[in-house]
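Summary of Year 1 activities. Much of the first year was spent building the evaluation harness for sequence design. The harness presents a backbone, in tokenized form, and records the residue chosen at every position. We chose the following record to illustrate the format because it has been used consistently in internal testing since the harness was completed.
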């Protein structure tokens, strides 16, 4: 199973998990959630995973950039100049 399919299956499983709606404030008992996005941005239960995911993505992107920079530096060809005219 390739990485994309594995990630897709993981996300579908995670979203469909009923334990995610275990604490109040998601509007499960109400037709409209009065808190909206504010609930997800202020509750530590939601904010900490968002922060962890953001940190992980940041580290992966920076790591890839640093790895590419390192590879580019190693590939740089130094052509010696042979214009010594004694």
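For this record, the design step produced the sequence shown next.
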């Amino acid at each position: 199973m390739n990485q994309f399919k594995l990630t897709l299956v993981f996300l579908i499983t995670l979203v469909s998990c009923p334990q995610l709606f275990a604490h109040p404030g998601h509007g499960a008992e109400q037709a409209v959630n009065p808190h909206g996005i504010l609930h997800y941005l202020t509750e530590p239960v939601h904010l900490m995973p968002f922060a962890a995911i953001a940190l992980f993505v940041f580290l992966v992107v920076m790591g890839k950039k640093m790895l590419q920079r390192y590879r580019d530096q190693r590939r740089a060809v130094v052509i010696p100049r042979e214009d010594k005219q004694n």
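Residues 44-75 form the longest helix (32 residues). Quantitative recovery figures across the full test set are reported in Table 2.
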